[in-house]
Write a structure and sequence with these properties.
By secondary structure, the chain is an alpha+beta fold. It is built from 4 helices and 10 strands; from the N terminus they run E-E-E-E-H-H-E-E-H-E-E-H-E-E.
């Protein structure tokens, strides 16, 4: 009989990074070495591989149009982010077809000089030892001041909390958690 070990329980009061949750559509870019020594370039949505002919709001077309820069700048690996802007969910005030790809890995991609110029990164709102007060404060400031990803857009969705010790993501939205949670004096 196979023995299954109980997983170690992570401590809640550990480092977390709180970023803006952008309301778009999830995207991923996979760059890998092929068996023949070449580079494989694959584009996906949250649930499937996509192509310029079978696309998701133009993400595959954009990725293929920028593939040289993405391969050189992102490198080998699986890179997740949010594809957002004109015609996608909230749109964030972007018009005339303007869309953006914001990478999720803030630890790696926050430096403008490191990531590809065609990419953005989700804005970091807070970081430190996890507390619900810190999450609520980030939500309050988003609701009061608007989106950090698209300054001037006053209907941001919420936050994503990355708990580093658990290597896990949580989300909290301004309106979608059953109550309007931001009544600060």
């Amino acid at each position: 009989m196979e023995f299954i070990e109980f997983t170690k329980i992570a401590r809640l009061s550990r480092e977390c990074v709180i970023t803006e949750k952008i309301d778009g559509t999830n995207g991923q870019i996979l760059i890998q070495q092929d068996d023949d020594g070449g580079v494989g370039f694959y584009v996906g949505s949250r649930t499937r591989w996509i192509t310029p002919e079978n696309d998701n709001h133009g993400f595959a077309r954009w990725a293929h149009d920028n593939s040289e820069e993405l391969i050189a700048g992102l490198g080998i690996g699986r890179h997740f982010g949010e594809w957002w802007g004109s015609g996608i969910q909230r749109g964030y005030g972007l018009t005339k077809g303007e869309k953006r790809f914001s990478l999720f890995n803030t630890h790696r991609w926050s430096d403008d000089n490191v990531r590809p110029k065609c990419c953005h990164v989700v804005p970091i709102l807070r970081n430190g030892i996890f507390s619900t007060d810190m999450v609520m404060d980030a939500l309050y400031h988003l609701e009061r001041d608007g989106s950090m990803a698209a300054p001037g857009f006053m209907k941001p969705e919420g936050v994503v909390i990355f708990h580093t010790a658990r290597n896990y993501l949580f989300k909290k939205t301004i309106d979608g958690d059953g109550h309007k949670c931001l009544t600060k004096k």
